[in-house]
């Protein structure tokens, strides 16, 4: 019996970037299992461009993209001071576990 092994994670990384005159001013990265869940890894906006809606635009685009891919659950880990930012998109606190390996 011949088996074919596929890597379900090959298309699991999504990136969106914003440039101004060839200068990267913001980006967002997510990783997905390709089936149901995705995790927002990074959302960064250069300090000079913060407060201008770039982060909000990046988050909206990523959520829209993940919904198109039929991703059911999107997770993000954020600092307490960023809670209002993420809540505006529908993120909420949930119980989770974490461990240190060293």
Write a structural description:
This protein is α+β, with helices and mostly antiparallel strands. It has helices at 54-68, 83-87, and strands spanning 13-20, 23-32, 37-45, 73-76. The protein has a 4-stranded mixed sheet with strand order 1-2-3-4, with helices on one face. It starts with 12 loop residues before the first strand and ends in a 15-residue tail after the last helix.
Write the layout of secondary structure elements.
Blueprint: E1 13-20, E2 23-32, E3 37-45, H1 54-68, E4 73-76, H2 83-87
- Tally of distinct domains: 1
* Beta strand count: 4
Mind telling me the CATH superfamily name? Answer: Gcn5-related N-acetyltransferase (GNAT)
Our estimate of the beta-strand percent is: 25-35%
Portion in helices: 10-25%
Brief descriptors of the model:
alpha+beta, 102 residues, 4 strands, four-stranded mixed beta sheet, Aminopeptidase
């Amino acid at each position: 019996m011949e088996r074919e092994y596929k890597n379900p994670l090959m298309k699991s990384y999504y990136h969106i970037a914003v440039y101004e005159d060839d200068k990267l001013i913001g980006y967002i990265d997510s990783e997905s299992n390709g089936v149901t869940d995705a995790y927002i890894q990074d959302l960064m906006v250069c300090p000079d461009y913060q407060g201008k809606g770039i982060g909000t635009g990046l988050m909206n685009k990523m959520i829209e993209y993940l919904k198109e891919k039929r991703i059911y659950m999107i997770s993000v880990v954020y600092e307490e001071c960023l809670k209002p930012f993420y809540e505006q998109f529908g993120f909420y606190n949930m119980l989770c576990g974490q461990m240190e390996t060293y």
